[in-house]
Amino acid sequence: MKAYTRYGLKGYTGNVDDMVFYTLPNCDVMIGRRKPRHFVEAAQHEQYRQTSNNLWKIKPSQAYKDDFKVYTSLYKDLPDAKRSVSGWYNLYIKLLWDMQKAGLVDLKTLTKQQIIDNNLPCKSVKTAVDAGYLPVVLNYQLLDSEI
Question: In terms of residue numbers, what domain contains 50?
Fold first, then answer.
């Protein structure tokens, strides 16, 4: 839920009693949520952990990251853009999960070499937009740095 303070503490982050408060970057919104009482480990948590660890190992190049940062700033300027996107990494991960949903990849075993060899849409921002996984923005054709 959105949280409000009396004295204009817009960037407050921390714990108060059984609540956790944090501010979303670049969105100027403070969120408050209750602390979870207890955590029950499930099989889905282990699968998600494996997927997240594998995605961390891909390590995109700096030029690819810069292209995604430019794309993200252009994407936020679109009139129908989702405001919940706070950074390039969110769009990058959303792109990868959409590709898995379409059946193109298995994120638990995906490697950088597979992306390059199989010419997957996440190879560059331009190929992702051309494949329809990301919306078209102005001059997206220039964002062609490979992962």
Answer: 43-142
- 127 in the same domain as 100: yes
Measured between alpha carbons, how far apart are the two ends of the chain, in Å? 36
- Is 67 within 8 Å of 143 (Cβ atoms)? yes
pLDDT of residue 8: 60
Alpha-carbon dihedral sign for residues 41, 43, 45, 46: positive
> Is residue 16 in some structural domain?
yes
Q: Is the same domain home to 55 and 124? A: yes
Mean pLDDT of 107-124: 89
- Cα separation of 19 and 33, whole Å? 6
Of the candidates 78, 74, 75, 114, the residue with the CA atom closest to the CA atom of residue 96: 114
Residue 147 lies in a domain: no
The stretches of the chain forming alpha helices (DSSP H) are 43-58, 62-76, 88-101, 112-117, 125-131
Let me know whether 107 and 91 are in one domain.
Answer: yes
| Same domain as 123, residue 76 | yes
Chain-centre distance for alpha carbon 8: 29
Predicted TM-score of the model (pTM): 0.70
